[in-house]
Design goal:
By secondary structure, the chain is an alpha+beta fold. The protein is built from 19 helices and 16 strands. The strands form three sheets. A seven-stranded antiparallel β-sheet has the order 13-10-12-11-15-16-14, sandwiched between helices. A five-stranded antiparallel β-sheet has the order 5-6-9-7-8. A four-stranded mixed β-sheet has the order 1-2-4-3. The structure holds flavin-adenine dinucleotide, D-malate and zinc ion.
Length: 519
């Protein structure tokens, strides 16, 4: 068990068997841009598939393009091939037809762009790494794309407080590397880390794999700078942990999905990099055992618990079939991935041993493996992190991102499976167990209206009935905007509409997304 002393003979035996099947584990990270190298057919235009009408925004003219060239010489992209990847979402389910992508480097350039677009009545779509899963990051029609790709500079890092200040276009993984070299880490991690931008993470209030440990970005983000639709620059970029002076305006922009302005810079509180990390993958026979494992790991691991994820056997089948990953355990109905992070390896090992012994002795888990070295840790994580990618290989993906009471989490997957029968190719459930966040995904050969009608509103009604949220962490974007009422009262949505109208009276910021129009 990679250096861990494990009291339970059963678990030790499992480990011995596992060592014999040491597998084809290797480097696991494929760039997410691979999604666009495939020869797959383009999805239909969003406007056609979803029957949306274009709002009366202006159309980009030659004169507009000349103006943008003056602001950003050489950074105005109009070539159709270059634009293609920016007009289609990562899931390849929505497609716009923007004619221009702007690549500002500075806040001042963003300010000039928005001021001009607002005056001209030109709609815009902010875009980070384009890894969003709700169709928010691509235009619906011909909105101007404003990419943060060149806004990728670290502005400052305080190695005493851990406050990092950077531009919005920094790629999450690059920030993790930058901090790792300074013995710090990002309080956020997700499968799209190689492509997503930190500004996009804030704009979606991304949750990810370590929310259980570090909490939401709403707590770790200390400040931000944003450009409002009229071009004015809002400076809330402070680096204080405590600041109770008036309303906390930055919170409005966290999770606003590009509908209120463009986040150009931010400061975030970073934790020290843990010096001891262990990951255990455990097999369970039943979902009730999964829940018992979660309760036990909270009890036994306490402050060193840094992630608790689950996946079902169908999710495991997906990563085995499409990505050729190897399951190191015998087949199980469910798998739980538990990660510990701390600063004292010996102490963490002792705690983990006690937890594993109890989990085995109580009959919560039937098999397990533990990794302490980086390569094997990454291989275990790949089984969970790469489910999204594996599903995308399986066909068209209907993706639901729900939070609900833990004891109900898997019942919805089972009910969906029996409801859909053979009309679905695959129904899987996985997610952030520690956060009560289920990812229910259904695949089919291609987009299919009958299947969609069987899924919606069923999934949303079910979730709402069980006091859940229809978007735990991905946001609403284009695809889920009109379902907001399943999770928010009319009164709350009304205030959102008023705020939107106050900050963006012409409605140029990411139209057709997130906030439904007033009735
Ligand atoms: P984009 O996709 O480019 O944009 C997302 C939204 O934010 C759009 O509405 C866009 O207009 C807006 N936006 C982008 N940048 C800005 C800005 N600077 N200012 C204002 N608005 C902006 N999400 C999770 O929450 N947890 C996960 O565990 C997770 N795992 C994922 C795994 C994979 C493999 C993939 C493909 C996606 C995953 N996601 C996850 C979804 C996605 O990665 C996140 O939503 C991420 O935060 C989006 O960042 P991005 O830079 O790609 O933003
Ligand atoms: C995840 O947790 O893997 C992400 O949120 C992506 C997904 O839901 O597939
Ligand atoms: Zn997730």
């Amino acid at each position: 068990m990679n250096g861990l002393k494990v009291g339970s003979r059963r678990l030790q035996d499992t480990m011995r068997i596992l060592r014999r099947v040491e597998c084809r584990w290797g480097q696991i990270h494929l760039p997410l841009s691979c999604r666009f190298m495939s020869q797959a057919k383009d999805p239909p235009l969003t406007a056609d598939r979803y029957r949306v009408s274009r709002l009366p925004f202006s159309e980009v003219s030659m004169q507009d393009l000349r103006h943008f060239q003056k602001i950003m010489p050489g950074r105005v992209v109009t070539d159709e091939d270059d634009l293609k990847a920016h007009n289609i979402d990562w899931l390849r389910t929505v497609r716009g037809h923007s004619k221009v992508l702007l690549k500002p480097r500075t806040t001042e350039e963003v300010s000039k762009i928005l001021e001009y677009c607002n005056d001209r009545g030109l709609a815009v779509t902010p875009q980070g790494g384009n890894t969003g899963l709700v169709g928010g990051s691509v235009p619906v029609f011909d909105e101007i794309l404003i990419s943060t790709a060149l806004m990728d500079q670290v502005i400052s890092f305080d190695d005493v407080s851990g406050a990092l200040v950077c531009q919005a276009g920094c790629v999450l993984e690059s920030l993790s590397q930058y901090l790792g070299e300074r013995s710090y880490s990002m309080p956020l991690d997700l499968g799209a880390k190689g492509s997503c931008h930190i500004g996009g993470n804030l704009a979606t209030n991304a949750g990810g794999l370590r929310l259980l440990r570090y909490g939401s970005l709403r707590g770790t983000v200390l400040g931000l700078e944003a450009v409002l639709p009229d071009g004015s620059i809002l400076n809330c970029l402070n680096t204080l942990r405590k600041d109770n002076t008036g309303y906390d305006i930055k919170q409005l922009f966290i999770g606003s999905e590009g509908t209120l302005g463009i986040i150009t810079a931010l400061s975030v509180m970073c934790p020290r990099k843990p010096s001891a990390v262990n990951v255990a993958l455990l097999g369970c026979e039943h979902f009730s055992k999964v829940l018992q494992v979660f309760t036990l790991c909270r009890d036994q691991l306490g402050e060193i618990l840094s992630a608790c994820e689950f996946m079902d056997s169908e999710s495991m089948r997906m990563v085995q079939t499409h990505l050729k990953l190897t399951n190191p355990l015998p087949d199980n109905a469910f798998y739980v991935l538990v990660e510990t992070s701390g600063c004292c390896g010996k102490h963490d090992e002792e705690k983990l041993n006690i937890f594993l012994e109890k989990a085995m002795n109580f009959g919560f888990v039937t098999s397990g493996t533990v990794a302490t070295d980086q390569g094997k840790i990454m291989s275990l994580w790949a089984l969970r992190e790469r489910i999204t990618e594996a599903l995308a290989h399986d066909g068209y993906v209907y993706k639901y991102d729900l939070s609900m009471p833990l004891e109900k989490l898997y019942t919805l997957v089972e009910e969906t499976r029996s409801r859909l029968g053979s009309s679905a190719q695959c129904v899987v459930g996985y997610g952030h167990l520690g956060d009560g966040n289920l990812h229910l995904n259904v695949t089919a050969k291609s987009h299919n209206d009958a299947l969609l009608s069987a899924l919606e509103p069923f999934v949303y009604e079910w979730t709402s009935k069980h006091s859940g949220s229809i978007s735990a962490e991905h946001g609403l974007g284009f695809k889920k905007r009109d379902h907001i009422y399943y999770s928010k009262s009319r009164g709350a949505v009304h205030i959102m509409q008023q705020l939107k109208n106050m900050l963006d009276p012409k409605g140029i910021m990411n139209p057709y997304k997130t906030i439904p129009p007033a009735e």
